[in-house]
User: Fold this.
Amino acid sequence: MLQIEKKKCFIELGRFLSQFSLDNNAKKVGVLGNDLFFDKCIELIELSQSHNGWFTPEQVYFAIQSWAEALSEENLNVWLSKYNFSEVKTKTVGLILAGNIPLVGFHDFLSVLISGHKVLVKTSSNDQYLIKFLAQYLIAINPEIENYITFTEGKLEGFDAVIATGSNNTARYFEYYFKNKPSIIRKNRNSVAVLTGTETHEELVNLGEDIFRYFGLGCRNVSKLFIPKGYNFDAFFKAMYEQRDVIYYEKYANNYDYNKAVFLMSNFQLLDNEFLIIKEDSSYASPISSVFYEYYDTVEEIQKQLENDAEQIQCIVSNNSIERSIPFGQTQKPNLWDYADNVDTLEFLLKI
Assistant:
């Protein structure tokens, strides 16, 4: 199966997904597979929360819309243009996917197929329906692609290379188990924001999106703030107020109550607006419903620290005060060429 044919399948998938949004699900003329899949997609979105309590319709619609935007012909062409696929010999690549946010493993799935390889997928129990549904759609519009896609429930076997995502603990297991195979092993990472105190209200509101999208469960969610000494949190909390409805979601509220109680019993000094806890802490990973912060003296100092800790960090957001940072509000809108852990997945797949 030629790459151009696979690319057309994913472009068509993007068109299909563009029909669904939280405010309106509307069929578009000429979209392939609507007769079989349009109503099923809506049903799956509504059922997702019963499969994983964190996968509310709002969060699933956001993930679907993000992929609809990413899978345009223009984006795919820009992404693929810098690679040479002419000498790829088809192999089977095993994927062990995470399940912390909806469709979190779809980029690996796409990368393997578009590079010319076959994919052997072991989904997370927390996100096992959405990616299978998208695979079914691809197969329906081009049955030949079925020869390149296999899902497995049991032990991963019969693969030539592997991409595995998990915690730092599971990564040690993966590294041992897959030591004789080409691999990408992904570990825990977190995202940070560097504030200078000059941020506009709009920028801080966008930072709220980086913090609260997917309830803060993704590695691209901001879990740590770096702030200058003497920073006043008033503007920050005023901007965060737009996210106040998050506390009405029971699972989030339970985490907020639990983590606040734990912090208070430990006599930690906290800042709190009744739905987000701010705590001074040197760690990058904060519990759900909380964000850690750390003071800095100079931007140069924090730039150096972030470079030294690069393996712990997924994204850095700032108002251009830090090199290679991205704007506020963009952490959960990566481009196809924004690779997890800054490891070029396609380059890896071309070399196996």
Summary: The chain has a mean pLDDT of 96. The radius of gyration is 21 Å. The CA atoms of residues 13 and 138 lie 7 Å apart.
